[in-house]
């Protein structure tokens, strides 16, 4: 039986450029109408009993070439349990790994995928929980729902939103953890938070890009996290409907959940460069990060992005726009594709389950300081 390589499924992305014996040569396809690419996900059939070597040859020109050194490909034989390919290497722009096929099928991905069927199941399960309201805030360019789950009765409006960049599935794994905690009737911390805040959760802001196997853009090739200053129906209805909902409720606290290709750590990015920056508001952001670092070894404060200079913040990005527009304690949470090097896992690296547990810590931290926000 010949080898079959397929990416024609939800979140799939790869292009076969050659098969020579036991060596498979591949390229990652760009996002539609965009030059961005880095996300890959594909299935291999017909290789049982063989050991194959895979080579992705166009990594040097990808969106974030600094993401490849020390990165390890994820592998699964059941689409549930994802582990790393321990022999993954990156040399001269080529990502290489080898896999021994003890099963008929295997899947390979940049990170454990979070496809739309899992998203739909999460939304359906949460929407049935007591005290949860589901709202369809709008639709994507391809007509997919922008789902929002609302829970809590408190006066402070808290917004969590994820996957503006669809090729960052750890963000929706995080959302699954947050939603599960918030609807758990036996979680006392969640109950206390629900009394003091109304929480709005948008698990996936870019379902079109998710389905298409994009790294960073929607169906029009637009980076949604550069649209928050002036979203439009033609380019970014996904942002437009979420921002309109925020305008209706106001925002006290907001977290935009992402993944970072290059930095091997979990970290926060803030809003230091906005013109309306105040030391009082900034102190609340810094306090949140300090408390989170004290709460879990899966978060740290040493690695992260450079701060924008005063008055130089990019207001097309959601964290800056939301902090400026609402006077909110806003932040971007970044999780790694590599591993959280301060607390590594040699078998799975950073993965979906660890992303879910980090969400629990984030909510615990928020609950401990909600009175001060």
Automatic annotation (TrEMBL):
The active site is at residue 334. InterPro entries: Cytosolic_carboxypeptidase, Pepdidase_M14_N, Peptidase_M14. Belongs to the peptidase M14 family. Residues 112-373 form the Peptidase M14 domain. It holds the Pfam family Pepdidase_M14_N. GO terms for biological process: proteolysis. SUPFAM superfamilies: Zn-dependent exopeptidases (SSF53187). It comes from Sphingomonas guangdongensis. This is Murein tripeptide amidase MpaA.
């Amino acid at each position: 039986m010949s080898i079959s390589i397929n990416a024609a499924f939800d979140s799939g992305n790869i292009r076969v450029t050659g098969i020579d014996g036991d060596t498979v040569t591949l390229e990652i396809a760009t996002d539609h109408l965009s030059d961005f690419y880095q996300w890959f996900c594909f299935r291999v059939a017909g290789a049982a009993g063989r050991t194959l070597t895979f080579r992705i040859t166009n990594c040097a020109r990808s969106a974030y070439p600094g993401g490849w050194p020390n990165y390890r490909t994820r592998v699964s034989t059941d689409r549930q349990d994802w582990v790393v390919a321990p022999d993954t290497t990156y040399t001269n722009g080529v990502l290489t790994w080898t896999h021994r096929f003890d099963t008929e099928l295997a899947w390979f991905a940049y990170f454990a995928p979070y496809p739309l069927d899992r998203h739909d199941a999460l939304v359906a399960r949460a929407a049935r929980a007591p005290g949860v309201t589901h709202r369809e805030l709008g639709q994507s360019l391809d007509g997919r729902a922008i789902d929002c789950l609302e829970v809590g009765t408190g006066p402070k409006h808290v917004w969590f939103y994820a996957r503006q960049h669809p090729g960052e599935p750890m963000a929706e794994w995080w959302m699954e953890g947050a939603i599960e905690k918030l609807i758990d009737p036996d979680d006392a911390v969640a109950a206390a938070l629900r009394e003091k805040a109304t929480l709005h959760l948008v698990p996936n802001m870019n379902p079109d890009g998710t389905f298409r196997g994009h790294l960073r853009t929607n169906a029009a090739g637009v980076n949604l996290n550069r649209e928050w200053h002036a979203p439009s129906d033609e380019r970014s209805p996904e942002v437009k409907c979420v921002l309109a909902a925020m305008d209706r409720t106001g925002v006290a606290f907001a977290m935009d959940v992402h993944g970072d290709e290059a930095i091997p750590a979990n970290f926060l990015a803030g809003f230091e460069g906005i013109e309306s920056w105040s030391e009082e508001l900034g102190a609340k952001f810094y306090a949140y990060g300090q408390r989170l670092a004290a709460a879990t070894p899966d978060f740290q404060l040493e690695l992260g992005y450079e701060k924008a200079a005063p008055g130089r913040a990019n207001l097309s990005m959601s964290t800056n726009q939301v902090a400026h527009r609402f006077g909110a304690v806003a932040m971007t949470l970044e999780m790694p594709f590599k591993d959280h090097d301060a607390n590594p896992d040699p078998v799975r690296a950073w993965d979906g389950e660890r992303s879910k547990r980090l969400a629990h810590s984030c909510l615990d931290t928020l609950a401990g300081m909600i009175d001060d926000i």
